[in-house]
Amino acid sequence: MTAGGGPGPDEVPSRPERRVGPYEASLRESAARAEETHRERLRAGRRRRMIVAAVTAVAVAAAGFVGWRLLSPAAPPTAVPATAAAPVSCSDPTPVSIAAAPAIAPVLASLAESLSTEESGPCAAFTIESVEAFTVSGTIGTAAEPDAWVPDSAEWVARAGSLADREIAVPEAFASTGIVVALPRASADAIGDQATWSAALTGRTPVRVPDPTRFTVGAAALGAAVPGLAPDRVTAVIRGNVATPAPGLAAVSQSPTPVGVVVTAAQLLAFNESNGGQALAALAPVDGATFLGYSLVTLTEEQDVADLIAELTAYLATEDAKDALSTAGFTTPGGPDPEVPSPLYGSVTDQPASDAAVLKTVRAAWAAASPKRQMLLALDVSGSLLSRTEGGTRLAVMERATLEAIAGLPGGNRLALWVYSLHIGKQGDDFRPLLHPLPVGDRAHLLDLRKQVGDLKRTVGGSRGLYDTIVATYQRARSTFAKGYRNSVVIVTDGPNDDDYGASLAVALSRVKKLVDPANPVRLDIIGYGNEPDEKAMTSFTQLTGGRYLPAAEAKDLLPALRSALGG
To answer: Which residue, 175, 179, 176, is CA-closest to 200?
Structure first.
C-alpha cells in the first residue's frame, strides 16, 4: 500500500520489442485502465481539497458548507448500527449474528446494509457486533458464540478451535490493512519518513502499543520493533506501555502533550475523515509490519444460516464491495488501491509475520510486567432470572455477557466463581462456591469457567440471600488475599435482598465494615441488573470498600458493566 500511483513513463526500463498476443494485450489494457482510474481518483481528491480550502477561506457560510459537502467524498463508516437492517427481499428474515474485529466492523455493517437493499438479496438480518478477535476466540463453543466471525488474524481462530476442540476452516481473506503510528503532525515532521519501528517506539514522542497478548495490532508492532532493540530497551518499551495503556484516537488528538498510538491504517483513515479538525498524521516505519487480514469465518452448524453467510461472503467479493472496502482503507484481492490516511509519512508495507519465538518473548515480558487482579465473581441465580427480556431470559443474557467478559480478560488475572440464591449451599447457605481463583490464561481453568457459566440454568430458582452472600464473598476474598494483586469481589444481582431470616442490612454492613483492611484492600463492586435492585443499599456496601455500584438497567448494559468491574 503506498501513498501515490505507480511509476511514470520515464521510469520504465526499455525492453526488446516482441509480439504481444490478444490475451496479454487485454491484461495490459485492464492494468492501464486501473492505473488511470487510480490516478484520476488522486487528481480528483487533490481538486476536492483545493476547492474545499478555497471555499473555507472565502467564508464559513451556508453556501460554502453545502459546497463542501457536495464536493467531498463520503467518509468511511465509523460506527456499527445497534440493529440489523431489514432486507427488502422478504418480510420474515433470519437473524444472523456476526462478531467482527473493530477495524472492519463499521464498513462490514455498511456492506451488509447495502446487500439488504437488493431485491435478490438474502433473507437475512445481519447483526454486526464490534468485538476484539481475542475475546471472540474465548467464546467459541459457548452460548456466546456468534453465527459467523471476522477476526483480524488466523491465530485467534486456532486458539478458538483449541478451546472448543474442533476444526474451524479459515477462508481466504477478503480484506487486509496495515498498521501505522497515529500522532500529531508536528511530531511526525520531527520523526520524518525514514524511521524504523524500533526508532518510532523509543523516540521523544511516546508511542503507545496495545497489549500484544490480546490485540493483533500490538503484536504486529512489537514483533516488528524487537529485532532492532537491545533486550534492556525491549523491557523498557514494554514496561512503559503497560504503565500507560494505549489511548483512543480522540484522546491522542486532544492530548495536551504529544503522544502517538499504533492503530490500523483503516482506523486512522476513518477517524481523520470524520474528524477533520482533529486529523492526525500517519507514520509508516520503513521496515513495515505484517498486515491484518480479515476472513468471514462461518461458525454455525445450521445449514440455512450458513447459506445466508455464504451469500454475504460472495457479496464481499463483488466490485462494489471492493470499492467500498478500498475507500475505507482496506486492500482487497484484485481490487483498487486503498485510500490511505493523510498526511502519510512513508509507505504502509506488508511484511512476513514476526518470528513465533519473538512474539512469545514479547508476550511473556508483557504478561510479567502487567498488573494482576484476583477476583471473586458471584452470580445471582434466583428464580427471577427466568423472566423474559429482549435478548431471551435474564439468565441467558447474563450467561452470554459473563462468558464474553471472562473471555476478554488478560491471562494473568485470577478468577473465582460463586453462585447464590436462597439455601443453594450444601449446608443451607445462600451461596455456593464453584471455582477457586486461578489464572484465566490457564486453559483448564478457562474451560471450567465456561462450563460452569454455561450450566447456570441447572441451579436457577428460589429467592436471594443477597446480604449473606455479600458478607460471605467479602470474607472469603479477605481470607484468600493475594499479595501483589488487585483483590476484588464482583456481585451481579437482579433484585433486592429477599431473605427474611438472614442478616439485616445493618448487620451485614457492620460485618463488611469490620472486614475492611486498608493495608490489604479488597474492593467490592456490585452490578444491579434490571430495575429491581436496591441501589441505595448496594451503594452503602460498595462505599465501605472503595468500590462502585454499576447499574445495568437494560440487557445491553450488562456486558459493559461486567467488563468495567472485571477490568477486561
So the answer is: 179
DSSP 3-state of 429: coil
* Spatial contact of 281 and 187, defined as CB atoms under 8 Å apart: yes
Cβ atoms 76, 106 nearer than 8 A: yes
| Residue whose C-alpha is closest to residue 128's, from 340, 294, 291 | 294
Grid-cell match 468500590, residue found: 547
C-alpha to C-alpha distance for 454 and 446, rounded to whole angstroms: 12
* Strand bridging mode 94-100 / 414-420: unpaired
Q: How far apart are CA 258 and CA 251, in angstroms?
A: 11
CA distances from 323 to 38, 80, 185, 315 (A): 11, 19, 29, 12
How many CA atoms lie within 13 Å of 241's alpha carbon, on the beta-carbon side?
29
Helix axes 356-369, 216-225, angle to 10 degrees: 110
Look at 73-77, 241-245, 308-312, 400-404 and tell me which has the smallest mean pLDDT: 73-77
- The backbone torsions φ and ψ at residue 397, rounded to the nearest 5 degrees and listed phi first, read -65, -45
Residues pairing with 128 in the sheet: 98
Answer positive or negative: Cα dihedral of 420, 421, 426, 427.
Answer: positive
Q: Is 521 left (phi over 0), alpha (psi -120 to 50) or beta?
A: beta
| 247 neighbors 259 (Cβ within 8 angstroms) | yes
Give residue 286's Cα distance to chain centre: 27
| Beta strands at 414-420 and 372-380: parallel, antiparallel or unpaired | parallel
Mean pLDDT within 158-187:
97
**How does pLDDT run across 117-129, given as a tens digit for each residue?**
999 999 999 999 9
- Greater pLDDT, 33 or 383: 383
Q: Write out the DSSP string of 250-314.
A: HHHHH-SS--EEEEEHHHHHHHHHH-GGG--EEE--TT-BPPEEE--EE----HHHHHHHHHHHH
Cα dist from 211 to 298, 364, 370, 487, whole Å:
27, 11, 10, 22
Q: State the cell numbers at 237.
A: 518499551
Q: Which of 399, 378, 372, 371 is nearest to 489 (CA)?
A: 378
Distance CA 514, CA 523 (A): 14
pLDDT of residue 165: 97
Contacts of 25 (CB under 8 A, 6+ apart): none
